[in-house]
Every structure is written in structure tokens, then in C-alpha cells.
Design brief:
Component of the replication restart primosome. Keywords: ATP-binding, DNA replication, DNA-binding, Helicase, Hydrolase, Isomerase, Metal-binding, Nucleotide-binding, Primosome, Zinc. It comes from Posidoniimonas polymericola. One of its GO terms (biological process) is DNA replication initiation. The structure is a single chain. By secondary structure, the chain is α/β, with parallel strands linked by helices. Helices cover about 30% and strands about 20% of the residues. The strands form 7 sheets. A 7-stranded parallel sheet has the order 11-12-10-13-14-9-15, with helices on both faces. Helix 2 (about 105-120) packs across helix 3 and helix 19 (about 635-645) runs antiparallel to helix 20 (about 645-660). The two termini are about 60 Å apart. The structure holds adenosine-5'-triphosphate (ATP) and zinc ion (ZN). Adenosine-5'-triphosphate (ATP) binds near residues 229, 231, 260 and 414.
């Protein structure tokens, strides 16, 4: 206020009083659900009393607040406390503090804020996704009795007056670096529980009861491994990583290492250094259940590791979280959400198989763990390592642009050669009646006779993938999704793979009454039947979403294959990843083209990744290995390059095409999808989105770099109907990602969806269906 006007308002307080009154200590709160805004609240004095830490209001704790006209109670996160000028209106007060400690470090607050901005979703929603829903309780744990030898006893085991058996028991226990359960000890010594119990009664063995969850129980039985002697490529890459670690700075290293080049050993030795600094490392893997070997290697090398997988109960997750936050964990191995592990002193993040699509979350917040890891590593000033035999083109492009440092491991360990890949042209194999070409069968036969094992990839589950009436052409479709139903012979049902709708297979065609229903198309169940018929004395293991429903079933199945109980492993893409079985001498790809014709600009890239990765599962031992890839399109660049293990060749063809069309990695893409029961309303909402985005973008200035905004749609999505709702989508692309995000954000704020219509927005989408 200008001072010369002071006299006009005698009642006003003097300027210094005004200042004091204007500043108040306020808490800024973000609601967990509800409007995407930040709200200021007054803080009652008792919540600022440092002598009562359990109710102290701090940034990162959750609070209860009155909200809205009716003052209903909402929960929110306190994201800031500080003095602010008093607003004109009267503020409400915080009603209470929910957490006894802060759930979020300042780093995590910044990271989640960035995610909300980048992925165009409410901050509160991101916060809820990052902080695990842990509740108090002890479900999911088991009480075990752990035995150990007191030091005073261990020192004189040889002179004690005990039986020989008892001495063996004491010796075994004293030699074990960790306490053992009764069962473990008995197995190790080869005795019953009797001598152990006698020793316990005599006080020569101590016992304590602990609550352990499944992961910790597993960790009890790990055998430790020593570091491997690195080969030259590994050593070179490790030196580069050490250089970054010693410099204590952020940078991103992309390790392009062919399948079987020993990337995991490099990560482990890098992390050993991080741990020696007293800091923690986060390792992200595509899916814990599919990577039991990788997880096992980490367990064998570190004492304090937390494995965060999707089968953890809330309670277990919460316990891990607390241990990690307390700095008690050295290495966190986790899927996507492991990137939020609350490490107090992070030293390194590793993203293994960084090209995998599972790193992108397909529900809100639709973040990509690689991007979040990048952001987090930069914010905490630590290196980020991305590793893959088939890097995502996004990463490859950034390396080419100098944003990432590219490190190569072009050879396999032990100088084993890459397996020879043969393309089997299905167009020339006219006499083929089943799924297996003559070439593939011969190769399988030779491998099996030689004591080897076989992996067969077919990326479709079920028995028959379409059920059709040859008389009138009608095919069985899901009534809710209008997608072809798959016949599952085991359960004798037709199943929709999108919505899980089930119905009995028709006896007669519902359209024309013909009884000659044809079951066509090939799924893993049919392949299993064929392999079993052709190789009757061979045990065949099938892995797909149908056989792998229960937690732990992947590990059991892979163990059985490793032990040689099964000679043939067949399945969907879940068998294509990361497995390291030296006895696999033949890999067969039943149909390399299944993903090629997807309505997705990444169809070629996905195909290249899948074929290269599955081909890499063989030739990992003394016996070598070979690969047969069946295809109708052997000249396709993705398939031809995969057959030569030639990533560079693939990238050289694919990148210019992406660039010409403005697709990622050259342009940013945002996808809008809406759905509703009325097709007309759904289409109208998509049109509204297009109009609003165009309006928010404004006119295209021909002189501005990046060219005009590319807007595709509205159009029916490839899955045009799902669970009874119509789906429409819109794609917006432009090289200037920030400007694109701003325009879409502004546009979405103006959308007025009618009752019953829903929409989502996906920044950097991976799913195009
Ligand atoms: N220096 C080494 N000497 C001998 N064996 C090694 C060495 N480094 C790694 N290995 C072994 O080589 C095999 C392949 O290593 P690893 O699984 O880490 O490869 P990878 O690069 O991750 O392959 P993929 O991309 O196919 O998963 C493993 O059995 C591993 O124990
Ligand atoms: Zn359906």
C-alpha cells in the first residue's frame, strides 16, 4: 500500500503491524483423493509441540482436514509448512495428524511433484501410489525358532563332554554364519531333532523366536557366492562405472550387452562398491517372479537385501519399507515401484532389461520406472545404469545424442559364440499340418537325443485362437468386447482374453445352425498337445498365464526345468526373458509374426526384442545352441536383424522411419482414451478433446521449430469395445514435450464429460490398444 494514502485510513494498523499479522505459519495439504490442488490450513498449537513427536505436524505426514462446504473429513499429505501471507478469507485448521513419522523425504516430495506434472495426474494420487498401503498387523509372516551356539560354547566345542552326534551338531551350528532353524540344522548334520533338543535343554544351544516373512525365510537358505573374475569387457565397463561412483555425480550409463554377456555380475560388483561406501542401491527388474535367477544372484552376494515383489502383503511391504527407511537394507531388488524405495542414502540405481514394457504402469499414475529412476538419480546426484541386450530406442537415441554414456559388451562370457539363427520360411513349408516345421522338429529331435533341452516360444495362450463357422463365416466374439474368443480346451470354455468373459463352446452356429464349427488358430495348449504327440516320451512343461496363476508357480516350474525334470519348455513371452540354462541347445520361435501386425508404431521393435531375447536363451553352455525362427515374413527388417543378433542394423532401419513420422523418440506422444456405453457420446467427447487440445495449442507458427502439432483422431481405439463400453482415442504428438503437455493439460481441464463417460490420459504411452 502506498504510504501517502496512510492518512486516509486511520483505522488501519501501522505497516510493521500489518507485516506481522500478514505472516502466518500454515500447512499446505494435498488431498489423497478429490480435487487436484494444494490447500493451506492453520496449524493448532498442539500439533507444533516438539515434545510430542507422535502428533507433531511435519512435511510428509498425512493429516485429517475439514474440506468443502459441509466440512467433511478428508485425508491429505502435508507437503509444506511455512510462513505465508494471510489470505483474505478465513482458513480452516488441521484436524489431526495421522502418521507418527514423515512418510516422504524432501527428495520423494520433489520426485512425486515432478511425476504429477509430467504424467498429468493429481499429486495426491502419485503420493498414494508411492507410499505403500501398510497397515499394522502381522499377516504374511511366520514364527520360526532360530538356533545358535553361544560364543562361550563355540570356543570349546572340542573339549565338551557330549556325544559325537551332538558335537557334530554344535560344530555345524558354530560354523554357520547365520542362525539356523531346527530343520536346517538337522538336514545339515543328517540327524534327528533328538540331539539338538538335548543340547538346547543343556543350554549349549540358544534359541530365539522371530517373525519372518517368506522372503526372509528364503534368504536363510542361500548359499553365498564369491565375486567372479571379470572378463575384459566386464572389467572395462565396471571401471567406467567406478569412475562415475568415485566422482559422486549423476550420469546415465547405458550398457548394451548381448544376451549372456554377464551384465548381472557387473551390476553386482558396482553395487558392492556402493555398499562399501555405506550407501544403498536400487535394482529394478521387469518382474520378480520371472527373474528368480537374477534375484538369487543378488541374495548370494549381499547380506541385507529386500526383494519387493507384487505378491507381498501390505504388511510385508510396510515392514520392508520401514527397514529400508531406517537404512538397514543394502540392496533393494524390486519391480517398477521399487524405484520409490525410501533409501536414506542412495548411491546407485540399476534398471535391468530397461527395454521391458512392464516398467510402464498401465494404471494411473501411468509412469515409466526408467524415467522416474532417471529423475530420481539426477535429483539425488547418483549414477543410473540402464542395461539391456536390446535397448529401447528411446535410450539408444539418448545415448546417440550424448545424454547417456554408451558402454558395450559385445561378446558372451567364456567367449561362447552367439547361437546361429535359422529363419524358417513358413510360406515354403506347404505340407505342414501342425505348428512345428520339419526343420524345427529335426532340430528338437537331435537336441533331445543329445541330452539337451528345448525352449519353444508361442505368444498366444489357449488352444484355438478363433472359433468360426465355415458355412456362414460367423466367428465367436465376446459379447462385451467384440473380440475373438479363445477356446481353452482344458476348461472346455471360450474365453475373452480382455475381460475374462466365459461361455460354453457352441455346438451349432448361432447364426446359421451349421454343426461344422471350425477351431482355428494356434495357442500354447494346442502346441503342447502337438509336441506331446510328436515326442511322446518327452516331458513337456507349459508356462503361460493359465498355468502360472499361483504365486511361486514360476519359480517351481523354472526349478523343475533347470533340474532336467522337463526336457521341453514352451510358453508365451514369459519364458523369453533373462533365463540362463546352459543345457538349452535349441530355441524355436513358432511364429515370429504374431506381434508384427499390431496397430502400434512399436510393433517392429517389440518383435525384434522378443525374438532376440528368446534366441539368447541358448548357447549359454559348453554344448552351444541354435535357434529356429518360423515366420511368414523372413525379410522383415526386425526379424532379419534379430536373426543376426544385430541391434545396430535394426536401429539403423527403424529410427529414420520414426523420425520421418515424428514418433518417439523424436516426438513426445500423449494418448487420450475415453469410454462409455453410448458410442455417440464417447465419440463426441473424443472430438471435444481434439478441439480443446487444438485450441490450447493455438496457431502453429511456421517459424517455430518442431513443425505443427500432430493430432490423430478421434478414432475408435483398436480395442473398440471393452466390457460393454465403446472406446475412442486421440493421439497428440510434437517434438516439444513440455509445450504438448501444457496444451493437453489445459485442454483436459475444460472437458465436460457427460455422466457415465470416463477418460484417461497417457503420457509417453506404451499400450496402444
Ligand atoms: N566373468 C565371468 N566368468 C564366468 N562366468 C560368468 C562371468 N560373468 C557372468 N558369468 C555367468 O554367465 C552367465 C550369463 O550372465 P548373465 O545372466 O548376467 O548375462 P546377461 O548379460 O544378464 O544376459 P541376458 O541379457 O541374456 O539376461 C551366468 O551364468 C553368469 O553366472
Ligand atoms: Zn470381453
Amino acid at each position: 500500500m502506498a504510504s501517502n494514502q496512510q492518512s486516509l485510513f486511520d483505522d488501519d494498523p501501522a505497516p510493521w503491524e500489518l507485516d506481522a499479522a500478514a505472516q502466518q505459519t500454515l500447512a499446505t495439504v494435498v488431498l489423497t483423493t478429490g480435487p487436484d490442488n494444494e490447500y493451506d490450513y492453520l496449524i493448532p498449537d498442539e500439533l507444533l509441540d516438539a515434545r510430542r513427536p507422535e502428533t507433531l505436524l511435519e512435511v510428509g505426514r498425512r493429516v485429517r482436514v475439514p474440506f468443502g462446504r459441509g466440512n467433511r473429513t478428508e485425508v491429505g499429505y502435508c507437503v509444506a509448512v511455512g510462513s505465508k501471507p494471510a489470505p483474505g478469507r478465513k482458513l480452516k485448521s488441521i484436524a489431526g495428524v495421522l502418521d507418527k513419522q514423515s512418510l516422504l523425504t524432501p527428495h520423494m516430495l520433489r520426485l512425486t511433484r515432478w511425476m504429477a506434472d509430467y504424467y498429468l495426474c493429481p499429486w495426491g494420487q502419485v503420493l498414494e501410489a508411492v507410499v505403500p498401503a501398510g497397515v499394522r498387523g502381522q499377516a504374511g509372516t511366520r514364527e520360526v525358532t532360530l538356533l545358535s551356539v553361544p560364543t562361550r560354547v563355540a570356543a570349546r566345542v572340542t573339549t565338551l563332554d557330549v556325544t559325537d552326534k551332538q558335537r557334530d551338531v554344535l560344530q555345524a551350528l558354530a560354523n554357520s554364519p547365520k542362525p539356523l532353524t531346527l530343520k536346517q540344522l538337522a538336514t545339515r548334520v543328517g540327524c534327528t531333532s533328538a540331539p539338538i533338543n538335548t543340547l538346547r535343554k543343556q543350554g549349549l544351544i540358544e534359541s530365539r523366536v522371530e517373525r519372518l516373512d517368506q522372503g526372509e525365510l528364503e534368504a536363510l537358505v542361500v548359499t553365498r557366492e564369491a565375486p567372479k573374475q571379470l572378463n575384459d569387457d566386464q572389467a572395462t565397463v565396471l571401471r567406467e562405472i567406478y569412475r562415475e561412483l568415485d566422482a559422486a555425480r549423476h550420469s546415465t550409463l547405458l550398457i548394451h550387452g548381448v544376451t549372456g554377456s554377464g551384465k548381472t555380475e557387473v551390476y553386482i560388483q558396482a553395487i558392492e562398491k556402493v555398499v562399501s561406501f555405506g550407501r544403498q542401491a536400487i535394482v529394478l527388474v521387469p518382474e520378480i517372479s520371472l527373474t528368480p535367477q537374477t534375484v538369487g544372484r543378488f541374495r548370494a552376494r549381499f547380506d541385507h537385501i529386500a526383494v519387493l515383489h507384487s505378491h507381498l502383503s501390505d504388511v510385508e511391504r510396510h515392514r520392508h519399507w520401514k527397514k529400508i527407511a531406517a537404512g538397514e537394507v543394502q540392496v533393494i531388488v524390486g519391480a517398477r515401484s521399487g524405484v520409490f524405495a525410501p533409501t536414506p542414502d542412495l548411491g546407485l540405481i540399476v534398471v535391468d532389461e530397461e527395454h521391458e514394457t512392464t516398467f510402464k504402469q498401465d494404471s494411473a499414475p501411468r509412469y515409466h520406472a526408467r524415467e522416474v529412476a532417471q529423475r530420481r538419480a539426477a535429483d539425488e546426484n547418483v549414477p543410473l545404469i540402464l542395461g539391456s541386450a536390446t535397448p529401447a530406442l528411446e535410450s539408444w537415441q539418448r545415448a546417440a545424442a550424448g545424454e547417456y554414456k554408451l558402454l558395450s559388451m559385445p561378446r558372451r562370457v567364456n567367449n561362447w559364440p552367439m547361437p546361429a539363427v535359422r529363419l524358417v520360411d513358413l510360406r515354403e513349408d506347404h505340407n505342414r499340418r501342425g505348428a512345428l516345421s520339419r526343420n524345427l522338429m529335426q532340430a528338437m529331435d537331435a537336441a533331445l537325443r543329445d541330452g539337451g533341452q528345448v525352449i519353444l516360444l508361442l505368444n498366444r495362450r489357449g488352444f484355438s485362437t478363433h472359433v468360426q463357422c465355415p458355412a456362414c463365416g460367423a466367428s465367436a466374439k465376446c459379447p462385451e468386447c467384440e473380440i475373438s474368443l479363445t477356446f481353452h480346451r482344458q476348461d472346455a470354455i471360450l474365453l475373452c482374453h480382455w475381460c475374462d468373459h466365459r461361455q460354453a463352446p457352441p455346438q451349432v452356429c448361432p447364426d446359421c445352425g451349421s454343426t461344422a464349427i471350425r477351431y482355428g488358430g494356434l495357442g500354447t495348449q494346442k502346441l503342447e498337445a502337438e509336441v506331446q504327440a510328436r515326442f511322446p516320451r518327452t516331458r513337456v512343461l507349459r508356462m503361460d498365464a493359465d498355468t502360472m496363476r499361483r504365486p511361486g508357480s514360476h519359480e517351481t516350474a523354472l526349478d523343475a526345468f533347470r533340474n532336467g525334470e522337463y526336457r521341453v519348455l514352451l510358453g508365451t513371452q514369459m519364458i523369453a526373458k533373462g533365463l540362463d540354462f546352459p543345457n538349452v541347445t535349441v530355441v524355436g520361435v513358432i511364429n515370429a509374426d504374431t506381434a508384427l501386425n499390431w496397430p502400434d508404431f512399436r510393433a517392429g521393435e517389440r518383435t525384434f526384442h522378443l525374438v532376440t531375447q528368446v534366441a539368447g536363451r541358448t548357447g549359454r553352455g559348453e554344448k552351444g545352441g541354435r535357434v529356429l525362427v518360423q515366420t511368414f515374413d523372413p525379410e522383415h527388417p526386425a526379424i532379419a536383424a534379430a536373426a543376426r543378433h544385430d541391434y545396430d542394423a535394426f536401429a539403423r532401419v527403424e529410427l529414420p522411419q520414426r523420425e520421418a513420422l515424428g514418433y518417439p523418440p523424436y516426438g513426445s506422444m500423449i494418448r487420450f482414451v475415453c469410454r462409455g456405453e453410448s458410442e455417440q457420446q464417447t465419440a463426441a467427447l473424443a472430438q471435444q478433446a481434439v478441439d480443446q487440445i487444438q485450441a490450447a495449442w493455438g496457431d502453429d507458427d511456421p517459424l517455430r521449430p518442431g513443425g505443427p502439432l500432430k493430432l490423430r483422431g478421434p478414432a475408435p481405439a483398436p480395442i473398440a469395445k471393452l466390457r460393454g463400453e465403446f472406446r475412442y482415442h486421440v493421439q497428440a504428438m510434437h517434438p516439444d514435450g513440455d509445450r504438448l503437455r501444457a496444451a493437453v493439460k489445459a485442454a483436459l481441464a475444460k472437458l465436460t464429460p457427460p455422466e457415465g463417460l470416463r477418460w484417461i490420459v497417457d503420457v509417453d504411452p506404451w499400450e496402444m490398444m
